[in-house]
Amino acid sequence: xxxxxxxxxxxxxxxxxxxxxxMAIGQGKPRVIVVGGGAGGATAARYIAKDSKGAxxxxxxxxxRTYYTCFFSNLYLGGFKEMDELGHSYGNLAAAGVNxxxxxxxxxxxxxKTVSLAGGxxxxxxxxxxxxxxxxxxGAVEGWDLAAQNAMPHAYKGGSQTELLKAQIMAMxxxxxxxxxxxxxxxxCPPGPYERVSMVAHYLKANNPTAKIIVADPKGKFSKMxxxxxxxxxHYAGMIDWIGADFGGGNVSVDPAAMTxxxxxxxxxxxxxxxxxxxxxxxxAELAGVTxxxxxxxxAADMSTKADADIYVLGDASQQGDMxxxxxxxxxxxxxxxxxxxxxxxxxxxxxxxxxNTCWSLIDTNDGVKVGATYEATDEKIAKVDGFISxxxxxxxxxxxxxxxxxGWYAGITSDMFG
Amino acid sequence: MLKGGAFAAVLTLTAALxxxxxxxxxxxxxxxxxFSKCKGCHQIGEGAKHRIGPHLNGLFGRKAASHDGxxxxxxxxxxxxxxxxxxxxxxxxxxxxPRALASGTRMSFRGIKDAQERTQLIAYLRTFSDNPxxxxxxxxxxxxxxHDLDPEILAIVGDPExxxxxxxxxxxxxxxxxxxxxIPSIVFWPEEDFVVxxxxxxxxxxxxxxxxxxxxxLSNDEIAALAAYFATIEE
Lengths: 419, 235
Description:
- The complex is a heterodimer.
- Chain A is an alpha/beta fold.
- Chain A folds into two domains: 5-135 and 280-350, FAD/NAD(P)-binding domain, CATH 3.50.50; 141-277, FAD/NAD(P)-binding domain, CATH 3.50.50.60.
- Helices cover 31% and strands 26% of the residues of chain A.
- Chain B has two domains: 4-126, Cytochrome Bc1 Complex, Chain D, domain 2; 151-232, Cytochrome Bc1 Complex, Chain D, domain 2 (Orthogonal Bundle), CATH 1.10.760.10.
- Chain B contains eleven helices and no strands.
- Mean pLDDT of chain B is 79; it is low at 1-22 and 132-146.
- Chain B: Residues 26-129, 158-234 form the Cytochrome c domain.
C-alpha cells in the first residue's frame, strides 16, 4: 500500500529506460512537461492531453505510482476513510495519452529548456508546468528538522506520513497527550490543521476518552475558527487546549528525542507530536529559479511565472493572490493554465480566466462545514469576487448534507484529476 | 384501450399489490404529496413530457428504460434488457434505494426509507397507468419548470465550445460520467431545465450557497453555453 524505498528505486530505473521513446516520438510536436501529479499537475496534464487531441506531447513526471491525496487524509485519521480509498493510480491518464514518467525532476535548465531527471534523462520542453506542492522551511520549528519526521510526523503530505501519525495516535497510552504545532500563514489547506484536531479528537473520544490535545499555534485566528470552536465545544468539551499567538503559541520548541514540547517556556511531555512547520514551494520550483522568497510569483491570467513566460506554477507552490492553497484551488488553476498553454502552442481559443475554491471540513460524524469563494484574474493577482461560509448553529441535516457533499466533491475532483 | 400485454401486466400488479396491502384513496392522496419529491425531474399526468427524468405515465408493466428518445443510464438500460419491468414490487425496491437496484442510475435521489410512504407513492403513480380507466386530471403544477424566467433568457442559444471551457469549473465537483455521490449529476439535462435551475441559483431562489456563488457570476450567455454543453456531453 505505501511506497517504500525499494519500489521507488525500481520505479526510477524503469522510467530512465522508457525515456528515449517519448523523445523520439515527440519530434515536431510541441511538448509540455508537467512536474508533479497532484491536484494541479494531474489535472493540467489530463486537460491538455484531452483537449489538444494529440496535437501536444504531454509528459507528466511524478515519482509515485500511486498518489495518496492529502485532502481527506484527516478523515483517515478520524477513521472515516481507509488509506486505500485515498490512493489513485495514473493508469487512466496514461490511457488518455499522457506520457507518465515515474521519476524525480532534479533540475531545470531554462536556457536550454530542459528538465533533468534523477534517472539520468534530460527532456526538452516547449512549456513547463510545475506543480510540486509544498516543502518545509528549514529551522521553522526549533528542534525539528526532516530527520525528526518519524518521531514527530508532519503528516502534511499524503501517504506514509499520515499512516505513521495514525499509528502513533492509536498507540497513545490511556489519558495520553497529543500535541500539534500548527503552521504560520500561508500554508497548504488553511482549515487542515483544525480539521485534523477534530478528527484526532473524534478518534480519542471513542478510544481514549481521557486523552488530551494541545495545539500550539503561531496565529491568533484561523480558518473557520468560529465553526471549529463551536464544534469542539459541542463534541469534545474539555479535550482540546488551543494556545494561540496571544498566549505564546508561537513561542514553541520541540525535542524529538525526549518527546517534549515547550510552549512559551513551559515544557510538556507528550505521546504524539504532530509538527506542521512553515511551508515553501516544492523544491523544483526553487531549483528552476522561479521563486521569490518561499513561493513562485505567477501572473493571474494564465499561471505563468513572473520569472519565465514558458514556466507555469500551479497550486500550493504558487504565489497568486487571494486563493487559499488547496487541492480545489490547484485543480481550478490547472484548467485555466491548460487552456492558456494550449492556446499558446496550438492557437486554440482562450477564454477569460475564472477560478473557484471550496474547502469542506469534518468536525465530527455528519458534522461538515465549508467555506468557498470565486476569483478572477486582475493585472496584479487572482482577486476574490464573492464568497460564503457555513454558519454557526446550523441544523444537523444541513451539516450532514455538507459532509455528503464533500464526499461527492472527492469523487468529482479525483475523477477530474485522474480520469 | 387495454392491450393484451398491458392487461397481463395489470394482473401481475394486482397480485403484487395484494401482497403488500391494497391501495385506497387515502394512499393516493398521500402519495400525491410525496410525489412533490419527484416533481423536480419527473412529469406525470396529461401532457407529461420527459424532463430531467422520463415522464411517468403508463409506467406499470413497462420495461425499464424503454422510452425512445430518453437517454437512460447504461445501468438501467442493461436492467431493462435483462427483463426488469416496473411493477409495484420493483418500483418499491427502486424507490427505496435507486442505486441499490441500478448502481449507475442517473436518478439523483436518495430514496424513501419509509415503506408506507413508498406504498402511498406507488398507489399515486399507479393511477397514471392503464386500468383503472378513470385517470384523474393531472396535477397542473406537476412540472420541472415552475418558474417565471424571462422567455428571452430561455431563448438564448448557447455556445457549446465556451460551455465546455466553463464546464471545467463544474467538474471539480460534478462528475461528467453522471455519478452522483452526494453531489447531483448535471449531465443530459434538457437545456431549458438547466437554464432555469442555474438562474434560480443566481437569483437566490434555490438555496445552496456554493451554487448561488458559482451561478451568481455567470452571465445569461454563459449559463446558456453550459446548458448547451452539458446537454450533449458524451459518456
